[in-house]
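Box 3.1. Reading complex inputs
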Amino acid sequence: MTTTWETALTASGRILLILAIALLVRFLLRRAITRLVTRLGRESERRRQRAETIGSVLRSASSVALLGTAGMMALSEVGVQLGPLVASAGIVGVALGFGARNVVMDILSGMFMLLEDQYGVGDRIDVGEATGTVLEIGMRVTTLRGDNGEVWYVRNGEIKRVGNLSQGWATASLDVEVAPDTDLARVRKTITVSALELSRTSPFDELLWEPLESPVEVLGLDAVSSDAMVVKVVAKTQPGKALVVERELRWRVKLALEAAGIEPPLPTRGAEVSGPGAR
Amino acid sequence: MTTTWETALTASGRILLILAIALLVRFLLRRAITRLVTRLGRESERRRQRAETIGSVLRSASSVALLGTAGMMALSEVGVQLGPLVASAGIVGVALGFGARNVVMDILSGMFMLLEDQYGVGDRIDVGEATGTVLEIGMRVTTLRGDNGEVWYVRNGEIKRVGNLSQGWATASLDVEVAPDTDLARVRKTITVSALELSRTSPFDELLWEPLESPVEVLGLDAVSSDAMVVKVVAKTQPGKALVVERELRWRVKLALEAAGIEPPLPTRGAEVSGPGAR
Amino acid sequence: MTTTWETALTASGRILLILAIALLVRFLLRRAITRLVTRLGRESERRRQRAETIGSVLRSASSVALLGTAGMMALSEVGVQLGPLVASAGIVGVALGFGARNVVMDILSGMFMLLEDQYGVGDRIDVGEATGTVLEIGMRVTTLRGDNGEVWYVRNGEIKRVGNLSQGWATASLDVEVAPDTDLARVRKTITVSALELSRTSPFDELLWEPLESPVEVLGLDAVSSDAMVVKVVAKTQPGKALVVERELRWRVKLALEAAGIEPPLPTRGAEVSGPGAR
Amino acid sequence: MTTTWETALTASGRILLILAIALLVRFLLRRAITRLVTRLGRESERRRQRAETIGSVLRSASSVALLGTAGMMALSEVGVQLGPLVASAGIVGVALGFGARNVVMDILSGMFMLLEDQYGVGDRIDVGEATGTVLEIGMRVTTLRGDNGEVWYVRNGEIKRVGNLSQGWATASLDVEVAPDTDLARVRKTITVSALELSRTSPFDELLWEPLESPVEVLGLDAVSSDAMVVKVVAKTQPGKALVVERELRWRVKLALEAAGIEPPLPTRGAEVSGPGAR
Amino acid sequence: MTTTWETALTASGRILLILAIALLVRFLLRRAITRLVTRLGRESERRRQRAETIGSVLRSASSVALLGTAGMMALSEVGVQLGPLVASAGIVGVALGFGARNVVMDILSGMFMLLEDQYGVGDRIDVGEATGTVLEIGMRVTTLRGDNGEVWYVRNGEIKRVGNLSQGWATASLDVEVAPDTDLARVRKTITVSALELSRTSPFDELLWEPLESPVEVLGLDAVSSDAMVVKVVAKTQPGKALVVERELRWRVKLALEAAGIEPPLPTRGAEVSGPGAR
Amino acid sequence: MTTTWETALTASGRILLILAIALLVRFLLRRAITRLVTRLGRESERRRQRAETIGSVLRSASSVALLGTAGMMALSEVGVQLGPLVASAGIVGVALGFGARNVVMDILSGMFMLLEDQYGVGDRIDVGEATGTVLEIGMRVTTLRGDNGEVWYVRNGEIKRVGNLSQGWATASLDVEVAPDTDLARVRKTITVSALELSRTSPFDELLWEPLESPVEVLGLDAVSSDAMVVKVVAKTQPGKALVVERELRWRVKLALEAAGIEPPLPTRGAEVSGPGAR
Amino acid sequence: MTTTWETALTASGRILLILAIALLVRFLLRRAITRLVTRLGRESERRRQRAETIGSVLRSASSVALLGTAGMMALSEVGVQLGPLVASAGIVGVALGFGARNVVMDILSGMFMLLEDQYGVGDRIDVGEATGTVLEIGMRVTTLRGDNGEVWYVRNGEIKRVGNLSQGWATASLDVEVAPDTDLARVRKTITVSALELSRTSPFDELLWEPLESPVEVLGLDAVSSDAMVVKVVAKTQPGKALVVERELRWRVKLALEAAGIEPPLPTRGAEVSGPGAR
């Protein structure tokens, strides 16, 4: 009789021990989560709110898991056989785990992207599946506003590489075609002068990345054929402004070349040789 | 003899304990499911019904799992050896789990898409595998009506990114080609005037996104060749109306350019230089 | 000696208990299977037979599994050590499970497609791997008759999205090309008149989806070049009849345009300008 | 001492029981395999032999597995500890299982394709990886004779969809081009007459699927350009004979159109307008 | 004290039993491996050597596994607790198994390809990743000599389908173009006569598959345009000789057509109509 | 009573033993980590800091794992049943493990790439997903600055092969086209002379890899047609300077050929033969 | 008291047994590793060093694993409960194993490629992801120098097939185009004579594979059109020298054809018929 009584006593002792440890681990885990949340939400109010949401989900989940486990251990101490329970939980866990793999992957990827600060709301990014301006960085999906106005929901785990088009400059690039017997130095000079004017005109002075020094670089001869010579011209611009600068520059260079009497490439069809004369 | 009797008593005590806990957990689970259902079905009657269906399936499944487990634990307490049962269940579970992975993935993806409210019935969406108007958001598949009248059933787990074409505006885009020696400013003005007229005409005033201010933006010179200059024109429209606006604008710009005497691009074949004269 | 006898008695009691529970669960499972079969076979006699086959396979499989498990548990109660048996079964199960994953996936996908009623025998569907008329919806494969007479066997699990071309309408679409200086309003009117006639002629009145109101919609100008203007015309038709309507409409519009004196697009080669005159 | 003797007795009793059950299960399994073999080999002698081979492999494998398990259980009853053996077998089983997954998948797919009777020796099939005439349906690979004489060995598990070109008809399809100002009705009639003749000539009367009624269907106008009108013509033929019929029909339609004075499409290059006159 | 001694006796008895069974199983396994090796190496000396190598690897591996397991069981019988050992072995096994999956797959695929005799050294095969003449069929890779002299090492498991170009015939195929107003019968006859001559000339009589009867088949009209008619001609040749026959046949048919006065297709550019006259 | 006391004593002895071993293993592990960190951070201050971060993460993780395990073993020694805890941990571990696979893979790949020193900050690399200059080599992602100014975040595990464009030379390559009847030796000489001049001009003397000996190699005739002969010219340059050299060389070779009277290729359109004369 | 003492004695005996076996297995494993290393490093000093590195890694890893296991078994014998330790190790092992799968795969593939001697340092190889000269064969990656000077790091496990371009010959291949009415025999003879000269000129006599007999093979007529006949010429060369020989041969054949008065193909544009006359 004594052993039974003693064992019972020890059992209650062990249950107390289990509870104590569970509460301690829960406290440590919650503190760690709080730190993570603080770190994730450092930057803006909106981000702080989102980090808070993640934190509260993590806190609930870990509490349920911890207390559930502690409860099962207590049951085990009073002699209940937990084999079937553990087996059921295992089967359900594995079955869900297989299917939920993508969800876990999406969320983990999302957390890492936040921690690594790959992009923020308002950045223009290229995530392979879609390109656009970030509307929202969610736990499982990133929301973008595409260039034509559509809204893209992209799963974070499907993003293998992110191109952030708002961190740094953009490049306007022009292929200027002239007749094959033109002097390269004159072309170079005409383009440079034309570009300098552009860099002093509003609003293009603010769209260029380095307007003062060398707004535009004439790289040289990209191709030579019997019809034309192609001269490559590039300019660094503010992010997202490459096309605007490119279009303006294209028009100005065209006018400048005409003014300088530099001939366009030969037409690609014979009879037009007489055509331009007829114009 | 006493120990056997005592153990039996304890066993029945444990069985009662198991039942009590099972019922408690079942109650908590059902309440959580009910909350989820309420949250999922917040918005419309139809959605509420679907959420109810999901809820009732979840409730039955969790009840069967819980009570089955509790039953096995009770059997275990009366001394039945459950090894073979657990092993059988495990093998069946793993075998089904492998094959059912896609089904679980589809359903989980579906629930998340509902929770994140990525699209609703009636939205036009692009899910990669198909594009069309959402007819129904199902547990496992999303049903779309394609543009040519066909019906698409797309598994939710196969949707890696969703483009919602009904949240925001759409973009009508026009490449206007003119002769290479045309003045860009005149082209720009002619197009702008023509677009303003369009934006005051019914029904186009309602199809444009911002009809009052700048209905159409003439972006500038997209390409220059010896045959033609390409001027890019874009307009923000109501979602799904880009093509309608684009077609009308194309016709109006064509007429306006002709009226203003702005020449079309050179024909791409020589002999036609005489051709148009013969027209 | 007494304990041995007593344990034997308890053992036989447990075996009886095991059998009773096994039979009860078997009864419940069979009833659930019967309900599923009834639901699957609700619609036609043929489908009912197929559902019956699935049902009988499921019934046999679950009986074998249940009674095998119960038998093993009984053996376990009389003291036979089942470790090796369980281990063997586990290894065979996992090895088969890995390889059979696709088969299970195919069958589960097939059952869901039946339950969701994605398509029926006789529907024309597009399953990505092949397009054709459904001949048979099997447990593991769907059989289609392709458009050229060939028979396609497509595994259900490989079908990521189904396009059902028989639920709703189809779209006949025509690109009408005219000379670049034609009046759009006249083209529009000529096409509309021509389409109205078509919609009143048998058998086309029955092939169109909405023959009475607006059988054909002239969408507007899809492209303008120096050679031609392209006018887009669409018509909703009965499913599978788009090409028939399209071909007839193409012929009628051609005749109507000629009759109205609307010129065809300029030939794309110069010398032919004189060619048509020579005709 | 007595208990030891008694346990030994019980142990030998258990061993007998194990053997009896193993033999019973083996008998049942072999009978099931025999039934499967009979069902698989129902149709031809060759197929029966192949099914016999599969059957004998299955029988050996299941006997080895069953008796090995029974032997291990017997060892276990005499007190040998089987833990290490079970663990070794498990590791070897899992390691092989991972690598052998494809082999199991190939064999299972092969058995299902046989059971579903997707194709037989001599059928022309399209399995994606290769197209040709089936030489042999093997356990793991299907052997095809390609159209150029090469032999293809395709793993059954890699076959995602099979197109059987020998079950049903084939479709001969012709695009007849005529001058853009031709009368469609005359073209239609000329082709139909020409096709009727073909359908009465040997050997084409036997190559067509429905030679008597409408051997060839003139579908209508597939395209209109300033150079040509394209009329689509199709005919159902015996499987594998579409190209033969197509080539003959192409020649006959060409002759018939010339005889009827229906002009060919305009040449796509100008100067040839004078060319044909010079011919 | 007696029980300890008795148990020890039983333990040594069990160890002897374990050793006896291990040796028996080893003997059976080695005999099975020897049979497999004999079957694999049936055909040539070289293949026999390779099979011997595989056999000796399999024999060593199975001996190590068997005797290791037997040793562990013996240790277990003398009371050593093997839990940690089994766990370590399991972890190492699983970790290696994951990574080694491809290696096992390559070797299994190689063995099956040998057993199924898909190709031999010297055959020309197409394995998707590369095409060439087989230099060596290895356990893990197949070595090919490519057509340009390079050596390809292809992993057996990456081979999804093999096209053996040396089992059967090859097909030489010619598209003969003639003027659009040529008589098909004359073309057919000219080609046939020309092909008969070829089939009687050395070395082409031995390169053709059926030189005597119908060496070449004129299939008929493959295409008709306003420029040319395309007549398809095919010939069965010895494997690997299709291009040789094709080139010779192309030259002979060209000469024969010129000799018969059958005109070539019209040149695709106008001005050349005068060109050939000027030649 | 004595046994209980004795067992307790042994238990405390075992707990001490467990703690001692845990601390020893922890010490060894930390030392190994420190060595790894030292090896990783050998080269630069920045890299040392990053290695320190990895090291501190590894140290914390291993300490938590080790002490957690030791704690559980101690609990186990005082009689607490750990089955439920182990099972919970296992389920959570597997579930996270599935989803975190990519993260672990990214980090392991990153560590190996650091150890193998595949690239450093400032190198231009091609990682398939993106090409650019390395900004940062992170634990999970590598950050690149693309050529147009955008920033790429590429997951290390997605990098299957790295092309380092900064280790060694780059190749400038030119296709020089001349008229088909030009003498190859003269072309060769003209180009070589022109290249020698370039190699003596600043800054190109420093951009070439081997400016002194043979700065440029004229490889020979790459193609011959009735319009042109293509001569291939290559030059080794400093990494990243190939395009600069190429453009300058293109211009110089063009001038040199003109000066030497070597004719350009024939224009590809007839009428231009008179065109150049008219220039 | 006696049993405790006896068990302790047995325990220490078992611990000694465990250590003895661990040391024996360690000795055998190390000897096996030494043999593998010797075999891997047979060929060159550099390779021997690499093999030594692999060997020392393998030796450390296996020693740690063996002694760790033996230590745990000893702990187990003194009564420490190892369940938690085994479980922790298992979870960490599986989690790392999932992520490290690629690393293990890379290393295993690398070892097999070394054993199979697929390529050596200095060989030019094509591994799909990149092509170049092997700089280093590493444990996890193979380093190549690409043709343009860049350095490629390719993971061994990503290499599905290797093409070794340095084992055997290379093939120079030329498509010689002549006018459509040229005599094939004359062309054949002219090319052969020209090739014989090349094969006797230094350095080409050493670049050809079989310079003495038939340095170049004129395969025959590859295509006939109304503009040109294409004659295919091939030559076997030393590996890596195909392009050099090809370019020289192209130039010599061009000169020889001109010298023999064999006309080039007709120009593809009409007006050039007069062009060449004007040249």
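In summary: Chains D and F do not touch (no CB pair under 8 Å).
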